[in-house]
Amino acid sequence: MADRMNPVSAFVRGIGTGAWLTARALRGVWAPLWTGDPLVEAGMTDSLARFTWGPLPTLSVLAALTGVIAGVSVGRLLQSYDAPLLILGALDTVLLREVLPLIVGVFASGSVSVELSSRLGAMSLAREIDAIEAMGHDPVPRVLGPPIIAVLVASPVHMLAVAAAALAGTMVPVHLAAHVAYRDMAAIAVSAASGHALLIGMAKALLFACLAFGVGATIGAAPVRVPTGIGRNAGRAFVTGLLAIFVAAALWSALS
pTM of the entire structure? Predict the structure, then answer.
């Protein structure tokens, strides 16, 4: 009751719970994974499909549309200012360092956080967690281990996909509006500055995905006694994940 009355205490406890569940899942998943635990193997296949490969088409389309929007705006700007290399270089940096990691993070909040909280809530309601414990197994690495591995694999894959889609999306409107050669835009996209920005974007996307995982695991770990509690937890996970990701993005920008 005290935690409910004290948001700061609840916030700190939530951070600690999320970090503890993440570390426990990572530390304990490897042994059952290598020994061929059927529960972990099935969970690994399902998690990779849900969190790594499944979101790629949607993320790529979102990134391409973001690139088109940015390209149209920059194309209009270049019609007034003749500084294509400078403006396009800044555009690539902003997309790769700031915008695209947030797109990946927001998508993770809507998928990883919601999926985990809903799945854990359903397992709690069906007493599946109790069944795993009754079999003498630790439920954390077997339930949360495959998703955290899939999330860690997904972050660089998703950033590479959205970077390629967004940069490609910027080229057509910029070429049509400002007559900048595709060759020049491609040279900027593969420059050292863009590569550095992409690495920073990957680091951000990894942080945001881990935050989404921690939020989903923390909220999903709360006991669920009625089916409607699953939906409430999913909504809380989405909103809390978004808030955590945007706070982390703001702090990163302020401290970098």
Answer: 0.89
